[in-house]
Amino acid sequence: MVTALSPALQHVAAERLPRYTSYPTAPLFTPAVDAGVARDWLGALDPAATASLYLHVPYCRALCWYCGCHTKIPADDAAIGRYVDTLITELDMVAAALPASLRTTHLHWGGGTPTIVGPSAMQRVLAAIRRDFPLEPGAELAIEVDPRMLTPEMAKTLGACGFTRASIGVQTFDPAVQRAIHRIQSAEVTEEAARQLRAAGIGALNVDLIYGLPHQTIASCVGTAERVLAFEPDRVAVFGYAHVPSLKPHQRRLDESALPDATARFGQAEAIAETFVAAGYRRIGLDHFARTGDGLVKALDAGRLRRNFQGYTTDQADVLLGFGASAIGRLPQGYLQNTPRIGAYQDAIASGRLATVRGLALTAEDRLRAAVIERLMCDLIVDLETVAATHFPGFDFSRERAILDDLEEEGLVRIAGTCIAVPEVMRPFVRRVAAVFDASHSATATHAPAV
């Protein structure tokens, strides 16, 4: 582990770099990929393809001031009901645009707070999914859960609907930090949610944590991690807070003077990592941890770990279909994204149009760069020649190699022929190495907090 940051590494830690849950990254999507293009792409899919579904619910009962997601507080429960109706209509519409029913291997509900829809609506949507997108035996059904809002009835409904995994939002248990971010959540409430979910038959639990929040310290981060270990989660995801008040105005309510700097953020992230590794968890990629025997560990050891908009995953599906306002999908042809505006999303679906408003058609070079970046982010090592042979034989990486030579001098990479490896002690900086293969990335550091 890196215990101290050299001046050079302080510079790298301060860079604002993508998390590379996709390549090209979402800011590069354009309106040239619209609803008409989306319908054409859906109709051209291989009927034998497997599918992964993502459903977005953009509502929460209360707004956490750190949140960077597309979410809002609903005017009333009727608004939630209308959204659910639209979601079901969109499921039917997309299914009708396909050449055949695609076999579904993964389902993920995100938000917002997906359970805000209530037990009855949850059952209606799952029935529509099973009708339109047949679930394969052993399919993973995952959902994000706010333990403050979980009722015993909803926990039982999730079990009855067949959910196999739940991601529990924790972020922090430090009372001072909770007050600063407008999210009060006791460890006892969280433990009770975990107990209810397990009692309902949901066999796998994830926990989400955040570092870099106002007033957060290494001690408070470690304290939260140690308390989380008592729940015995199967996986833990640890994200750095992204302060973007120009994009998320509610973040202006946070005390910027209390935000830790890049060096402090690095210390917090590594302290959390050391806590979970010491407890027997395997470190997965940049920011995930998993218990021995978990699917992520098996996928990592088999060289089949993947990365998508939900983070690190075992999902091997050919197609990712996104449903709901702001949802992103990935097809062999490229990326599709629905409008993030709830009203516009509902109007589009009501008029019989897909809600796609932007996206990106992938080139052979995009696919090659995406594959290289994914392997680095997942495995910390990639053989450029092997990946190029699959996606773009003979591609010239001379520009990237020149930059990598400089990074090797800094100790960020090791180069052996066409093999590029990130040393374990440099794992926290893998995004800097991945950025070398990002054709849109500027080599000039911004000195902004990494996100």
| Poorly predicted tracts of residues | 443-451
CATH topology call of the largest domain: pyruvate-formate lyase- activating enzyme
CATH superfamily of the largest domain: tm_1862 like domain
If strands are numbered along the chain, what order do they take across the biggest sheet? 7-8-6-5-4-3-2-1-11
Largest sheet: 9 strands, mixed
Bin the helical content: 25-40%
Q: How large is the share of residues in beta strands? A: 15-25%
Q: Assign the CATH architecture of the largest domain.
A: Alpha-Beta Horseshoe
Number of distinct beta strands = 17
Class by alpha and beta content: alpha/beta
Output the radius of gyration.
Answer: 21 Å
- Any idea what the shape is? globular
Q: Mean pLDDT, as a whole number?
A: 94
Q: Total domains, how many?
A: 2
C-alpha end-to-end distance:
20 Å
Summarize this structure as a short list of keywords or feature phrases.
disordered C terminus; 17 strands; single chain; alpha/beta; Arc Repressor Mutant, subunit A; 451 residues; nine-stranded mixed β-sheet; pyruvate-formate lyase- activating enzyme; 15 helices; 20% strand
What does this structure look like?
- This protein is an alpha/beta fold and 451 residues long.
- The chain has 2 domains: 21-329, tm_1862 like domain (pyruvate-formate lyase- activating enzyme); 363-440, Arc Repressor Mutant, subunit A (Orthogonal Bundle), CATH 1.10.10.
- Helices cover 37% and strands 20% of the residues.
- It has 15 helices and 17 strands.
- The protein has helices at 7-13, 35-43, 77-97, 119-132, 152-160, 175-181, 187-199, 218-229, 262-278, 295-302, 342-350, 364-379, 384-391, 398-409, 430-434; strands at residues 50-57, 103-111, 135-145, 165-171, 204-211, 235-240, 282-284, 288-290, 306-308, 311-313, 319-323, 328-331, 334-338, 356-361, 381-383, 414-416, 419-421.
- The strands form 4 sheets. The chain has a 9-stranded mixed sheet with strand order 7-8-6-5-4-3-2-1-11, with helices on both faces. It has a 3-stranded antiparallel sheet with strand order 12-13-14, with helices on one face.
- Helix 3 packs parallel to helix 4 and helix 8 runs parallel beside helix 9 (262-278).
- The longest helix is centred in the first third of the chain and has 21 residues, at 77-97.
- The model is unreliable at 443-451 (pLDDT under 50).
